[in-house]
Amino acid sequence: MKKLLMGALGLTLALALTACSGGNGGANGGESGGSAGEVKKGGTYIIGVSGEATTLNPDATADDYNYAIVQNLYSRLYKLGNDFEAKPDLAESYELSEDGMKYTFHLRSGVVWTDGEPCTSADVKYTYDEIIKQNYAFASVFENVDTIETPDDLTVVFNMKNPDPSFMGNVSWYGTFILPKHIYEGTDWLTNPANENPVGTGPFKLDQWNKGTDIQIVPNENYFGDQPLLDRVIYTVKPDATTCYQSWLNGEIDESWYYTESEFADLEKDTEKYQWIEQLWPSPWYIVFNTEKGQCADPAVRRAIATGLNRQEVSEKGTSGIKPASEYFIPLLYKDAHNEEYKLPDYDPAKAMKILEDAGYKKDDKGYYLHITFTSQAGLPEVEQVIKANMEKIGIDLKIDSLDYTIWSEKVEPGDYEMAWMGGFQGPDVVATGKRLVTNGMINYSRYSNPEVDKLYEEANREPDPAKQNELIKKVQEYLAEDVPNLNMVDYMDKMPMYSYIKGHPSFSEKDGGSMEKAGFSEMTYVWLDK
Q: How many whole angstroms separate alpha carbon 421 and alpha carbon 375?
């Protein structure tokens, strides 16, 4: 059973997910075609999710299990879609000054929260000021923001410290949803009761949260945009992959986060029953090393592991060959920034052992140079076994510690690990890969710190010319080849079946019967059921 981490999971895994990437990945409707007839309103849409959200506060912490839900409950200034483009949301337009130092957003008039209170620029300023002040999960989105002004109720101005070409993409992505000032001001964002009874401005509102079972949302009749077509969306928690997949096959749920990739060939034969999503994401599965402490703090150990890992085997045995073996230190999608001279090392077990021996490592009486714990996430047994077998061949005894996501994050985020599994969206553009690599990067779980890499990313973040950005990222890869703080294994190619009766899904373009051009990543506004 292969666990499919959707765009929303890469988010951090999730989702996963952002704009201005110019990425060449796009959903391919395959046999789906457009709608069979007139749009049908009503019905309940059930999504099988692999874990339960810990909070419905979308900004305070990174929670991949709430991302698909909260983007239906709240609004951002702009929102990211599956085409990696930023689309108007709470703001209907914006302007950027010629020097790149001022963003001016114009909000929609007449927007109200689900409790009936008006939503204004004061809510936007309060939300982002608080994220910055409290250094919440995605505060780095605003690292180049100097001040935020609100000249009137419908205008928000960001005065920048430096030009930031990634700002529009980042402010449309994760952790940038607008929260109601009248609900959160003066409270602890981590414990506010609204985290379980959200007050939002999105197309849906919370109806039920049955802890351990499901979260149910219904249309928000006061939504400023198009009214949702469905009567109800249910996110039902099904952590067991086999159970979830079987429920989907049986038609008990409409959409699943689990699929058996080895069975895709059989499913593809039924062109009437299924349509297919195919999309390349900048969300590789990779190994993150603790560069600060422990055995993997030695770059020689990291280089040896990189040389001794058969990434092609990870692809074939772990994803049935659907997700291609990685070749570069940055996602495959960013092809214009690839450094062909400083790629990931070729698989060579003998060379890997020589790297260890040259660094002074000797085998113990059990025949191992090292004994290392690999902190993985539950649901990846095939990938884990490939890595373990590969390490055995180069004299590394690898203990697999496969954990639930919540427990995994409690260990990995504070650095209580040696090497760990990671995934996650590395967009919205190639410069955003720095979040995992610069010293103060918000997803730099490796604790990697290289002043030259920091400097190159800083220059790239201020450079408006994409071609020059790419050249700077190519230089970054020279350091990554030596330091190997992270090791990409496979690039994230989404290939997943979906029932043909599902129409208006944000994973499909409008010409293929979807809503990609106007909806957010997992926004359910335009989904309808043709049955």
A: 6
